[in-house]
User: What shape does this take?
Amino acid sequence: MWDFLLDVNVIDGPFLWAVYALGALVAIYLLGREASGHWVLTAIVLIIVGGMVGAGVLWAAVYVLKWFGGPVTEAAWLWVPAVFAGIFVAIWNLWFTRWWRKLIALLAIPIFALTAVFGINAAYGLNATLGSMLHISTVGTIDPEAPDLSETDPVDPLYLTWQPPAGMPETGSIGAVEGGIPNANSGFPARPAQLYLPPAALVDDAPRLPLVIMMMGQPGDPDASYIGAVLDEYAAQHDGLAPIALVIDQLGDPADDPLCLDSERGNVETYVMSDVVPWALQELNVLRGRQFWTVAGYSNGGECAAYFGTKYFDTFGNLLAVSPVEFPGAEQSEEVLSTIFGGDQAAYDAVKPANMMAARAPYPDTTAIFTVGADDSGFGPGTQRLSDAAALAGMNTTFYAVPDADHGVSALNGALEKGFKVLSPRLGLAAPAP
Assistant: This one.
C-alpha cells in the first residue's frame, strides 16, 4: 500500500489536478466571505500585500540567505506570492466569522502551502512521484553480473561487431545497487547508488560497454530514471547498445552540499575516486579505456562532473556537465571561503574547475560537453564560462543551450540526449559523422 502511495505521479495527471482544484475551491470560499464593497476592497488589499510579502520572502531566501543554491524557476515567483496572498485572506477570515469558516480558514493555510509545493515541483519536473519528493526510493535492487577481469577490451568499436541476439529485452533495467557501494576508504555516508543496464547488458555473453558515472542535483537523490529513459531511447536506435549508467550520491543528505571535495562536510572526492571507481572496475562489465568513461552531472552534480572530469582526466576521458554550478560553493562563496578554506583564497581558487583547466592545460584527449537551458539565466553565464575555459585548455568542447528549457527536467533531458549524440562515436556505439 505504501509503495502505491509513494509511486503516485505528482507532476501531471489526476493527483495534481485534484490538489489544484482543492486549493481553488478553498480560495473561492474564503473570498466569498460577504457580498459588500468593503470586503471586495479588503480582499484586494490582502491579496496585494500578501503577494508582496511572499515575493519579498522568496527574494530573501534566494538572494540573501541563498537557501536554494542559485536562482529558482519562474513558477516559484508566481506560486510563492500566490500562497502568501491566500494565507493573508485565510487569516482575515478568522475574525468575525462563524466557527466553520474559521475551521476552513485554518485548514486553508496548509492546503495553500502544499498546493504551491506541488505546483513548483511540477514546474521543475524532477520529482515525479510522492516518494521522490520525500526522498524515499521504491525501486528494487539490481545485482550486475561480475565481469571477466582476465579479458581485455576489444579492438574494434562495438557498432561494427555487435549483433543483438534473439530475445534481447526491448528496454534496460534500473535498480539500486545490491548491497550498496562500500565506502571503506572514504567513510562517506552515501545513499544507495542506482544502476541502469541497457538491453545489450542483459543478455548472455554481454559485451563490455562504456560507463557513465552520474550525479544529480541538490536537493536530489541518486535517481537513474532520467538517464535510464534517455538511454533506453538511444538503445532502441542502436541495436540495444548504450552506456551502463551508475548514478551515485555526492550529497549524503539532500539538505547538505559537501562541494564535491574532501572536507569537514564529508569525503566526497575520496568516495568517488577511491570507492566508486574501483568498485565499478571490479563489479561492472565495462570497457576500461578512459575514452569510454564519462563523468556526468546535473546542477550540483554538474559542478562535480566539471571538477572530476578536469582533475581526474586520466580516469575520465569525457565529462558532461548539465546546467552546472560553476564551482564548489559558488552560491555561498564567502561562507565556503571562510568555513572550508579558512580564508585561504588561493586554496579555494585552486579547486575551481576553470582555474584547474588553465593550470593543467593542454588536455589533448578529453571531450567536454556543457549544456544549459536556453531560458536559464541564472546558470547560463557560469556554464558558458566553464565551456570557454575548457576550450582554451584544449578540450574537445561542445556548448549546447537546450531550446525552450529552464533549470528543470527539460534542460536535463535535452542535455542527456545531446550529450550522448555527441559522445556516440567516441564511445564506439555509432559511426563517426562523415
